């Protein structure tokens, strides 16, 4: 037997990563459940192509470069698909996030700011000057051309006498009459063109819109040449330093000092938190969809690896991991969790679309009818579901993504720059931020309790009568009883636990509706496992032997097509 070397001996066959639109059973079921057939048909080809593009060699080269050299929104506002535009958008984001090298972070804030400005433009009492400024910003934001903030020390002063000057000479957009000064300790997407921020006025915490740059004919080029009408400078901003972070290293995050930044008031003084909540509803859903997007890619890598990695099977035999009962049980358990997280995140996206746009005249499947809230419940449900999805999905996506990384053994722990498409360790580092920014899990949990207690929050969560007297829905009755019997202070101490139970009730209901939609035995098995895992009723049953057990797990992980191919090869 010849000794191995760096270029001779056994070499592990590289896994093949394929288009999730075809290969990801969870993605396929969500695509079918949350989109009417007419909308699905109209968007299928484009999403299929995106699924191919996000795993191209060029994309992975760019991902590697974004960390080596450190530092899609308009779809959600399409009129043709109306309320379903958000589902289409977030299905695309699910595929794009793990290949985007964190551009989805500024995209989320971009989207939230766009929605907030649209809300103000719909106000007929908005003055003409601010209407021009906000409309200009919205036009740019829609273009498809290639912790606790109450203690903020940023102050805003109304000073119309200093409003002279322009954010853009070409577009004739005036700088605002408010002067903002202070220190922002953690600011992402510092290379953007505009910002929405909070600052204190005499009437309290208020929201402001401001361009990041302003015109300055005296500005000079690197070579010292005056730039004239083309010259710009930062709008009263000084970048203090860039942050050094565990993950998201391709996304610049900085400490900013504001000194006389000119901006425009959004809404009424002292109502800044209310204004920012419009943005948070959107950015928190982005976070949830991004978390499950990272998980989807990591799971795809784990599945591909299991098809090529061979291990000892005893008595001199070897087998690939996809034939190992233990390994396939591990992957099947991840798949069941993944499908639940996917459905919950897409329900939040669907609710957002219903809140923003009218429902187009398309025929809904019976399954989609069951999970569509009544119009009067949409807004309070969005207030609740955005907290639930962000809190539960982000936290659990991290756990399951780590399980995917572990399933590759030492290979999963490496920074695989030479095979970037296998780089689960980068996905994991970037995914970890999602349970922190836009509100930590504890912040989301307390916000969730408040949302249930106000504005018909509990009523918006009531189960559809067509689901019947199903056991997990009984757990919801116990939650409602607690809200009737306990004070807000008592509920807050267990807010995270309550959010977890509610999230899992929602997921079981969604998995139930999904399984009933086509009587899929695989989807029914996923539902059964999830209910058992979460202790919501039932016992593990119906598994007749090792062969049947392995087949069930393989069907959950790879789908029925894989089973047909396997059985054909055995025959």
Task: Describe the overall structure.
- This protein is an alpha+beta fold and 571 residues long.
- It has two domains: 20-101 and 278-570, Butyryl-CoA Dehydrogenase, subunit A, domain 3, CATH 1.20.140.10; 104-270, Butyryl-CoA Dehydrogenase, subunit A, domain 2 (Beta Barrel), CATH 2.40.110.
- The chain is built from 21 helices and twelve strands.
- Strands 1, 4, 5, 6, 9 and 10 form a six-stranded antiparallel beta sheet that branches.
- The longest helix is centred in the middle third of the chain and has 37 residues, at 272-308.
- The radius of gyration is 26 Å and the shape is globular.
CATH level 3 topology of the largest domain? Butyryl-CoA Dehydrogenase, subunit A, domain 3
Main sheet attributes: strand count, strand direction, barrel closure: 6 strands, antiparallel
- Percent of residues in helices: 40-55%
**Which CATH C-level class of the largest domain is it?**
Mainly Alpha
Number of strands: 12
Tally of discrete structural domains = 2
CATH superfamily of the largest domain: Butyryl-CoA Dehydrogenase, subunit A, domain 3
Helix/strand structural class: alpha+beta
CATH architecture verdict of the largest domain: Up-down Bundle
Q: What integer is the average pLDDT?
A: 82
Weakly predicted, low-confidence segments: 538-547, 567-571
Number of helices: 21
Q: Could you tell me the strand content as a percent range?
A: 5-15%
Instruction: Give me the Rg, rounded.
Output: 26 Å
- State the shape: globular
Distance between the ends? 35 Å
């Amino acid at each position: 037997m010849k000794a191995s070397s760096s270029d001779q001996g056994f070499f592990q066959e590289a896994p093949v990563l394929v288009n999730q639109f075809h290969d990801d059973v969870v993605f396929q079921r969500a695509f079918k459940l949350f989109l009417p057939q007419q909308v699905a048909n109209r968007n299928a080809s484009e999403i299929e192509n995106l699924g191919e593009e996000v795993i191209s060699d060029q994309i992975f080269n760019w991902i590697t470069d974004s960390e080596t050299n450190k530092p899609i929104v308009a779809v959600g506002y399409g009129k043709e698909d109306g309320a379903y535009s958000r589902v289409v958008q977030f299905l695309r984001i699910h595929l794009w996030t793990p290949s985007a090298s964190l551009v989805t972070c500024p995209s989320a804030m971009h989207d939230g700011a766009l929605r907030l400005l649209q809300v103000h433009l719909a106000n007929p009492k908005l003055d003409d000057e601010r209407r021009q400024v906000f409309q200009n910003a919205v036009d740019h934001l829609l273009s498809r051309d290639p912790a606790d903030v109450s203690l903020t020390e940023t102050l805003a002063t109304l000073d119309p006498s200093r409003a002279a000057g322009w954010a853009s000479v070409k577009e004739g957009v005036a700088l605002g009459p408010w002067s903002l000064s202070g220190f922002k300790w953690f600011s992402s997407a510092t290379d953007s063109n505009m910002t929405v921020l909070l600052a204190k006025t005499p009437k309290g915490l208020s929201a402001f819109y401001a361009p990041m740059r302003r015109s300055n004919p005296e500005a000079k080029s690197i070579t010292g040449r005056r730039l004239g009408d083309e010259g710009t400078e930062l709008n009263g901003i000084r970048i203090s330093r860039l942050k050094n972070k565990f993950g998201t290293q391709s996304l610049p995050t900085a400490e900013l000092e504001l000194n006389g930044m000119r901006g425009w008031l959004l809404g009424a003084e002292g109502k800044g938190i209310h204004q920012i909540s419009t943005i948070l509803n959107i950015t928190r859903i982005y976070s949830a969809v991004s978390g499950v997007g990272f998980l989807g890619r990591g799971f795809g890598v784990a599945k591909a690896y299991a098809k090529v990695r061979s291990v000892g099977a005893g008595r001199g035999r070897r087998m690939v991991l996809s034939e190992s009962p233990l390994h396939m049980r591990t992957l099947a358990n991840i798949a069941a969790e993944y499908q639940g997280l996917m459905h919950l995140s897409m329900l939040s996206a669907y609710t957002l679309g219903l809140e923003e746009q009218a429902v187009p005249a398309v025929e809904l499947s019976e399954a989609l009818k069951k999970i569509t809230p009544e119009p009067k419940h949409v807004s309070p449900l969005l207030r609740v579901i955005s907290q639930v999805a962000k809190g539960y999905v982000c936290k659990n996506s991290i756990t399951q993504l780590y399980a995917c990384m572990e399933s590759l053994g030492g290979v999963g722990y490496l920074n695989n720059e030479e095979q970037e498409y296998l780089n689960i360790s980068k996905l994991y580092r970037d995914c970890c931020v999602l349970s922190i920014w836009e509100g930590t899990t504890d912040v989301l949990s307390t916000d969730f309790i408040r949302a249930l207690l106000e504005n018909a929050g509990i009523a918006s969560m009531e189960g559809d009568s067509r689901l019947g007297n199903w056991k997990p829905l009984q757990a919801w009755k116990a939650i409602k009883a607690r809200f009737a019997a306990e004070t807000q202070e008592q509920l807050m101490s267990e807010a995270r636990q309550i959010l977890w139970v509610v999230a899992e009730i929602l997921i079981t209901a969604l998995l139930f509706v999904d399984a009933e939609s086509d009587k899929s035995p695989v989807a029914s098995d996923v539902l059964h496992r999830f209910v058992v895992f979460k202790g919501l009723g039932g016992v593990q049953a119906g598994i007749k032997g090792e062969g049947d057990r392995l087949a069930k797990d393989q069907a959950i992980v790879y789908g029925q097509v894989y089973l047909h191919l396997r059985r054909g090869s055995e025959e």
